[in-house]
């Protein structure tokens, strides 16, 4: 399950915005009816690897250079939840609760 909310306000060619997103993986525990210990561990490992639960808070700024060209900068604070690695390929280092991501983009419509 996932949801997000974004709010922004345009000031001429500039548009600052805030976003909040949440993503939760359901059913990440092995079925307790699996009695074979090897099968239970295998199923549990597969399900744990698919746990993408995280919250993300974002602050961004869009600048419309022309009718079909915009520059964007965005800072995200990504916070994996419930022992998940979120959408990262590796878990965060021990003791880290979040990671900050900065992105720059050019949007071109032709």
Supply database-style keywords.
single chain; 110 residues; mainly beta
Outline of this structure?
With 110 residues, this protein is mainly beta. Helix content is 12%, strand content 47%.
Topology:
Blueprint (H helix, E strand, L loop, with lengths): L1 E7 L5 E10 L13 H13 L4 E13 L2 E12 L18 E10 L2
Antiparallel strand pairs: 1-2, 2-3, 3-4, 4-5
Characterise the protein shown here.
The protein is mainly β. It is built from 1 helix and 5 strands, in the order ββαβββ. A 5-stranded antiparallel β-sheet has the order 1-2-3-4-5, with no helix packed on it. The longest helix is centred in the middle third of the chain and has 13 residues, at 37-49.
Form type? elongated
Rounded Rg: 19 Å
* Range of helix content: 10-25%
Beta content comes to over 45%
Q: Characterize the biggest β-sheet.
A: 5 strands, antiparallel
Low-confidence stretches: none
Structural class: mainly beta
């Amino acid at each position: 399950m996932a949801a997000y909310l974004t709010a922004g306000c345009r000031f001429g060619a500039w548009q600052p915005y805030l976003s909040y997103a949440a993503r939760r993986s359901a059913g990440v525990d092995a079925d307790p009816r699996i009695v074979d210990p090897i099968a239970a561990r295998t199923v549990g490992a597969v399900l744990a690897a698919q746990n993408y639960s995280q919250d993300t808070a974002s602050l961004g700024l869009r600048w419309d250079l022309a009718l079909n060209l915009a520059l964007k900068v965005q800072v995200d604070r990504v916070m994996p939840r419930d022992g998940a690695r979120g959408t990262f390929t590796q878990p965060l280092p021990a003791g880290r609760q979040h990671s900050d991501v900065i992105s720059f983009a050019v949007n071109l419509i032709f």
